[in-house]
Amino acid sequence: MMDVPDQRGRRVLAETEEVDDVTATVGQQAQAAARANDVWKVYGSGEAQVIALRGVSAEFERGQFTAIMGPSGSGKSTLMHCLAGLDSVTRGTVAIGETTVTGLGDSGLTKLRRDKVGFIFQQFNLLPTLTAKENILLPLSIAGRKPDPAWYDTVIDTVGLRDRLDHRPAQLSGGQQQRVACARALVSRPEVIFADEPTGNLDSRSGAEVLNFLRNSVREHGQTIVMVTHDPTAAAYADRVVFLADGQIVSELIEPTADTVLDTMKKLDTPAEVGN
Amino acid sequence: MFRATLKSLLARKVRLILSGLAVVLGVMFVSGAFVLTDTLGRSFDSVFADGFSEIDVNVAATPKVEVSEVEGEQTATPVPAAVVDRVKQVPGVASATGIVNADGARVIGSNGKVVTSFGPPQLGENWTGESELLQLREGRGPQADDEIVINKSLATAAKVQVGQKVGVLTAFESKKRDFTLVGILGYSGDRDSIGGLNEVFFTTPVAQRLMLGAPDAFSSITVRAADGVSNETLRDDVARTLGAEYEVKTGEQVAADASASLKEGLSFFNKILLGFAAVALLVGTFLILNTFSIIVAQRTRELALMRAIGASGRQIIGSVVLEAIAVGLIASVLGLAAGIGVGALLAFLFGKLAGGLTLAGIGVPAAAVIGSFAVGLVITVVAALLPALRASRIPPIAAMQDVATPDRPLTKVTIAGSVITGIGAVLLFLGLSGNASGQTLPTILGGVLFAFIGVALLTPLISRPVVSLLGAIFSWSVPGKLGRLNSGRNPRRTAITAAALMVGIALVTGVTVILDSAKGSISALAEDTIKAELVISGVQGGPRPPSFDPGVLDRAKALPGVQMVDGEYGDMAKLNGESTWVAASSDVASLRQIFGAKPTAGDIDRLSPTQMLVSSDTATSRGLSVGSTVNVQLTRGEARTYTVSGIYESSQLTNPVVLPVTAAKDFAIPQPIQGFIQLAPGTRVGDVQPQVETLLADSPEVSVADREAFIKQQTSQLDGLLTMIQILLALAIVIAVLGIINTLALSVLERTRELGLLRAIGLRRGQTMGMITVEAVVISVFGALLGVVVGTGLGAAVVEALKDEGITDLILPWGQMGVFLGLAAIIGVVAAVLPAIRAARINVLGAIAHD
To answer: Do A113 and B762 touch (CB under 8 A)?
Structure first.
């Protein structure tokens, strides 16, 4: 339970007041689906202090598909966890839509995750005892809400699972399981969907299917998606890529291609350039 | 390998502690039983050694009818006073004193009620002066016929003081007689009583008349040896002088004999406790089996890795068994220690209850130590053996693959379960139908054990439909539905967990069915048959049943509205040399008119002083018919010959033998112990009852009740028995609860990621706890349901087998069964508390990142 994610930063640093807001601050818009404002995340204290996020500010526009990239330990997963209300921030504020996440108690956070946030994980994380359909409807059942039948049909048809609805996860392939997970995230029409390496456990074909599907749900249905990935090909599906290094946003690409993403990544991997 | 085992043990300590706890509780029962009986046994030794410390040699007459500890107090045959003089003539005798010492001196306390004893006899004795052991605390010894001395603890219990008038019932007078209390005595070492014994001292003539019913006679003779004469030599000399008619023993022998007969009772008690230990351990076995199976399943990767890097299958078995041995050893040590504590506590309570038995030091006999370790180790290792075998079959390749252990088919288990259940049923049938050739009890117990194991093996198969049906109750909510699905997820694990609860519940249900049926049958029979509106009886506390003044019978008969009165006497007697229970009836005609007996031969409505009646069963077993003569030796007096004049059909309510009332004067208790009053038609019970109450004013041991109250009182003993059994079996249920906690805790651990996901997508903490609770409740109610069904089956089988013994009605305790199911639901909720809290506290982020 005390797992320390490896993204917690690779260097032990003394606290520094030097805040550099290099690039990624997008103009304040009421439209933003998710917002981070000067977010610091510090683990431990004293000698063992690790700073995972150092004053990150970012906005994620409604109806946009954003990828967060960065080398291992850059803080990209931590940022996503903080945005999604899974982890608390040390300093700064996080908001989902109109709701300020920072300062919410457990029940507030639970309600926020239930009503405003959708998740897609690398390990699919489906309940083995439930059928595909039951898994998809689970967040709504927990909330005690009925699905909008038209939207439900749309989602099922988009992910192409209509003939697999009564199967249990063990009877589905990895790609199918991840499509169930995507449908589960979509069906409650959350403010924002957070996807954590959604293609990490899939072969390239299934991965492409899932990414296409995510991009379509943004283009056609105006869904907001924030995806953490280290795969440039996956990032190329996004409308915008935000690069993190050492707990700071260091770069940003609009309308990326796999090549431009790869180039930016290469630059980041050269330690001399970090923080310059 | 050893180091690896040790490390894995430490990593799993919580789980092992839980399953170890089951062994600890079972072992505790075993060692507690031994410690208790050893401590009490030695305490009795010292009590009797003390009580007989002033006797070098004891002379008593051979008893006419031997009575075992279970049947009551032995009544001594009086020794004529002349024998005292003969003993005095024997060379080497310093002194010989005639002693009167008999049970049945009952002191009436200042509240008008008889001071009762719960075990030790209530002795009435003759005063022979103070001694090293007996010391007057206040006053003086009795000198006049109406003076007595009693011991301090009795005076305290009766709340009486020196100088007061004290009422006493004696062996030969169950009508109150007033005495002046002239002294209170204590014992050496400032004790108020020896082992809870109550003693009343009269002058010698009064003691002879009221306690022995024989002037110029004694219960025994206490002989002191002259200086330089050994007790053994003196014993042999006295024995030679007196001949075979008398039992001559040294004081030590008498003490040892008295102690031995009590210890017989103790060893019976010991066996009962060990029986309950066996039940606890059986349940514990299920728990350990389950824990080790889960541990092995969870370690599949680790064990496969060990295989891959070269460990042999045997080494894998060794490592699992080694874990079991470590758990068994630790649990045995703790269980032994806890058992010593429990044994000491029970001995203390027993001592208090028995009226202040001074306990010898708490002893830990070798049997307790050996028993504890043998049982603890064997149970643990046996239970771990199957999982160990399964572990050794894990292929090395499992280390490389993602562990997807498919649900093994249940065919094998189901076949094994059916076969074992079948064996159990056959054994039960053999045992219950009396075809087990002398091994009835072991056969029945074996049958029950097989039935339990068999049903436990069948449980996984049953669990699927039943659990999903039970769970359907909770499916209206999402957490309920998830909980239900989870409980059906691993049928084997659910099954064993539920089976552990089944054993306890089944035994409780079975015993309840049997006792309720017995109670119902007896009540129904009594209500149908006994034609008496009022019954005189008392509640038996000590070894002696309550009795009352026979004069009451005649006076009751004279009351207006009373049609028939019958006083019942009873005792053990020897018929043609064989011990049996005999009764005497103050009005023989009652046999037909009140107890509804039907004659099968001769005349059963009257008896002359030389005639007797026997039941049809007795007539058959002893080869008697009308006109047969029988030699009868009663507790007192010489043997006499009676002629069988009538035979009546045996029933639950009839005695085997009825003697004329004139014989009752030679019974150990020569007073009636029950009275039945039949009223004339149209007489109101409420009119007669107060008058009979008045008649009983001087017989405070008994009271008069209407028939319903009497029947209820008679069957209430069964209620006490039932409660005691339920309490003892509760331990087995407690162990089963540990099992449920264990299973749930493991499930929570295994499903950390899932729980994290559920929390991530919005399941509230309360809902999470609800989900775990539903799982627990479904498992425990399933177990209880199985238990109720199996228990009812077992109980019904026993009742069926006892049909000929008079248990004719099968009474199913529906209310009790409902209570058990409700209780199971509560048990589930309680068992879920800790795992549920743990599940609710799961760190969402950590759980999702969990690998």
So the answer is: yes
